[in-house]
Amino acid sequence: MGDVSHLLKSHIQEGKPYNPTAILRLLYQERPEYARLMGNELPYGISPQARQAIIDEIDNAHLYPDSSYYELKQALSTYTGFPDTHIVVGNGSTQFIDALYYGFLNPGDAVLFAPPDYAPYRIRLDIYGGTPQLAPRSPPDYGWSVDHLIESVTPETKEIVIVSPNNPVGNCIPESELRRLLELDLLVVVDEAYYEFAGTTHKPLIHEYSNLIITRTLAKAFGFAGLRLGYAITNPGLAAYLTKVMHHFPVNRITAKAAIAALEDTAYLDFVIREIKKGREYLEAALNSLPNVKAYPSNTNFVLTKFSAPDASSYDITQQLIKAGIIVRDYTGKTGLDGQFVRITVGTQKQNETCVAAIKHVLSH
User: pTM score > 0.90 for this model?
Assistant: First the structure.
């Protein structure tokens, strides 16, 4: 066979894959003992009940899962307070990015974003021939500018994506501002991946607005980053439509059983949330006590930190932390951010203290 490039779709060929760990892959392999404070993973692992559920279910791995996911949806219904007819499950909340584009967009349709936000929403849009529209939030605090969003809407706009709590800033959109967006004749997607750490949600608005879809994940507070389970909450009509869009068997049976157990293990979830909040408060206070450092108030399990010292770049910080056995995420140059930034996942208290000590060392030399 000769060259097959003419068979490829140009907009997909020109798209960029989302691969945030590629540069550090060798480091992960060589130093698995390093603290992974770069991916917003849970440092405490999954709950004991979820672990036992995996062990109990492993002998059934050769069997297909229940395609209706009845038990899983019942567990999510209990957890969210919404009937299972309002819930759709998927292979991580990232699968819903594709489903929302594939199911709602035609080539040339536009999706409106308020960066800085979660980059995969914009990266995956290329695959579906959509057009990104950006209404960036303004420094220094990167609060929500709904006026700017509304002014940016065009006849081509079909969806608005709001990441709240926001990644990477950590702030939440006020309900009054979200209501203004929901009054538009557009699909509004609210990504609540970090909902458990914020303690606030916009899910009650689903009863009022038929154009709202909320996506969530068990990757963060439940520690399911490697097991992959996400879900959406919306009205029954959109839920039924999204179910048609999703792949067959999007969740494997082992993950489904583990998720049911994790959702029931409320004591472990309470422990996780309490420890993360404690660590987050420590990081924010310790970092803000340093000269030329600003830790943004966060409703998540990470802290976005800006460095203003002329002789301490984000690269210097990340490299010094690697020497201390800690991997963080350099966010300098990301869309919507202005300055030198590092995003630090909340780890164990020992990891948090080691991280702050290493940053102090950089700033004092």
Answer: yes
What is the pLDDT, as a whole number, of residue 34? 86
Q: Are 342 and 318 in contact (CB under 8 A)?
A: yes
- List pLDDT tens digits, range 73-97: 999 999 999 999 999 999 998 899 9
**How many CB atoms are closer than 10 A to CB 133?**
17
Rounded to whole angstroms, the Cα distance separating 304 from 284 reads: 9
Q: How far is Cα 152 from Cα 149, in angstroms, rounded to an integer?
A: 5
What is the torsional sign of CA 221, 227, 228, 234? negative
| Dihedral in degrees, nearest 10, Cα atoms 254, 224, 278, 24 | 140
Check: CB of residue 170 under 8 Å from CB of residue 296.
yes
Homologous superfamily of 5-45+267-363 in CATH? Aspartate Aminotransferase, domain 1 (3.90.1150.10)
153: amino acid identity, one letter = V
Q: Provide φ and ψ at 317, rounded to 5°.
A: -65, -50
d(C-alpha 36, C-alpha 329), whole Å: 10
Name the 3-class secondary structure at 353. Answer: helix
Query: Do 48-265 and 5-45+267-363 fall under one CATH topology?
Result: no
Q: Mapped to the 3 state alphabet, what secondary structure does 64-127 carry?
A: CCCCCCHHHHHHHHHHHCCCHHHEEEECCCHHHHHHHHHHHCCCCCEEEECCCCCCHHHHHHHH
Q: Where are the domains of the chain?
A: 5-45+267-363, 48-265
Fold type of domain 48-265: Aspartate Aminotransferase; domain 2 (3.40.640)
CB within 8 Å of 166: residues ≥ 6 apart: 116, 117, 142, 172, 173, 300
Question: Quick check: 144 pLDDT over 70?
Answer: yes
The DSSP output letter for 294 is E
Is residue 257 scored above 70 in pLDDT?
A: yes
123's tokens = 């990266």
d(CA 118, CA 116): 7
* Amino acid residing at 64: Y
Q: What is the mean pLDDT of residues 272-293?
A: 97
